[in-house]
Write a structure and sequence with these properties.
The protein has 127 residues and is mainly beta. The chain is built from one helix and eleven strands, in the order βββββββββαββ. The strands form two sheets. Strands 2, 4, 5, 6, 9, 10 and 11 form a seven-stranded mixed beta sheet that branches. A four-stranded antiparallel beta sheet has the order 1-3-8-7, with no helix packed on it.
Length: 127
């Protein structure tokens, strides 16, 4: 069992930065692939970044490459998403999620491949 709690969302101007955190409860956090998804109004939920259990592999959606960085601290049971150069199109509810499946683009981008989800945190980027 894993419980995920996101924090760090808020309102920021275009070009600004935010750092999202996702704190996990459970002793097996280090076994999970972790990901950040987002759902913008009127759009489907999409995976923006994912990181393997040991941080050896990462995935980024094309729309955030070079601007977002995912990282994890296994002793602290926490995964982060550093978001720089934010744009209005980044406005969405951001969710963290955990999966025990292997790490590949097909796996990490699939909503159904994640067993645990956080409640989400709102990120709003003003123009």
């Amino acid at each position: 069992q894993l419980q995920l709690v996101e924090s760090g969302g808020g309102l920021v101007q275009t070009g600004g930065s935010l750092r999202l955190s996702c704190a996990a409860s459970g002793r097996t956090f280090s076994s999970y692939t972790m990901a950040w998804f987002r759902r913008a109004p009127g759009k489907e939920r999409e995976c923006v970044a994912a990181i393997s259990w040991n941080a050896g592999d990462t995935y980024y959606a094309d729309s955030v490459k070079g601007r977002f960085t995912i990282s994890r601290d296994n002793p602290k049971n926490t995964v982060y998403l550093q978001m720089n150069s934010l744009k209005p199109d980044d406005t969405a509810v951001y969710y963290c999620a955990a999966s025990l499946l292997g790490f590949s683009r097909a796996v990490v981008t699939g909503n159904r491949n994640y067993s645990y989800w956080g409640q989400g945190t709102q990120v709003t980027v003003s123009s």
